[in-house]
User: Fold this.
Amino acid sequence: MTVNFPPGFLWGTATAAYQVEGAPHAAGRTPSIWDTFSHTPGRTLGGDTGDTATDHYHRRRDDVRLMADLGLGAYRFSVSWPRVQPSGRGHANQPGLDFYRALVDDLLEHGIRPVLTLYHWDLPQELETAGGWPERGTAHRFADYAHLVAEALGDRVDMWTTLNEPWCSAFLGYGSGVHAPGRTDDLAALRAAHHLNLAHGLGAQALRAALPSHGQVSVTLNPGVVRAFTDAPADLDAQRRIDALATRIFTGPMLHGSYPDDLLADTAGITDWAFVHDGDPGVIKHPLDSLGINYYTPTVVAAATDNGLPGEAPEPSPWPGAAGVAFHRPPGKRTAMDWSVDPTGLYDLLVRFTEEVPGLPLVVTENGAAYDDKPDGDGTVHDPERIAYLHAHLDAVRRAIADGADVRGYFLWSLLDNFEWAYGYSKRFGAVHVDYATQTRTLKSSARWYSQVARTGQLPLY
Assistant:
């Protein structure tokens, strides 16, 4: 017995440029902040870098054929900013753009819809040296970059995403420092969040100006599923604080045209938000054709107490203005990332945004899990845990659709095992196993399972 997804539902997988491409110096590419960060001793597990990654830059044709063999309808990829605009300003680097032209042509030739993300965390190092996302000028540089990529690819790509997970860029990059560029400054993190919001708005305007009328503009967020440890007022207030920092700092201006009052009050000891200029909220609140939602695991919080609740946020923290909040380990099964498996969080997000912004289509742009996948003696890679994870989360999507959510597609993270940021090559999210020594690709059992779902639009019942 099976249950059906709506006709036209988009089934795809996703990757990010720095995690898969490699070829860091090819065709005029210059360093991004992730090149600098990963080459700094102690920043990544084992000193791993994305210099080779999965060598997608040289193996793109094979990877596209792999997607086609799996029957996927769409591929969500990101453009490497320093590959197409090496200094982060000025004219386009045509040899760098040629890679993406060829990738898009390959996808279209195989009937796969290209879904392009402009920014997945690889800021050109020159722009970081000039101040990075805490500086307003970076938002304007992003708009210029968006326009030149749209001019090059807008005739063949109709789904565009400005930013991927700006929360990570701002708060892991400039708050806790566990992501590039590795800075630890609460004020810089809040400034970065605003200028990422502004970059989204300015970038969306630039896309509209350059794209054909049928071009679709979106943004991908990783909104928090924040749950209170108890229903005590102090724990509920902790939940409110973290929801403001995890989600509403972006959805407030992007979807509603203003920052939440409680966020401004919570962070008043850090900044007066004078970096928000008149007119900025109106630019940021650009009409969207869809909203991308990434989801992996929920967050459980409580008010910190003198007896030291377990799991309190480390210092430096990605949560400016939330020193009185303690973080608890959510219950349930765990992935290799030690993240709890809880598909109800994805359902809750889809229902939340359906109610918050009626009429705005939603796309699950990332969802997946890392497990310790190893080939068997015969070379096969069985990953039943990932199949169970995907089944449960796709069922959550199905239930949300049944309850009125307008969900248009689902993108599995990720197509390939790849460079997992600060974790290096230690965590495997791919539906396709990669032997990093030989770059051999091997379909895991989850890839075959997902292929059947994508081909039929049907989710088999357990």
Observations:
- The two ends are 9 Å apart (CA to CA).
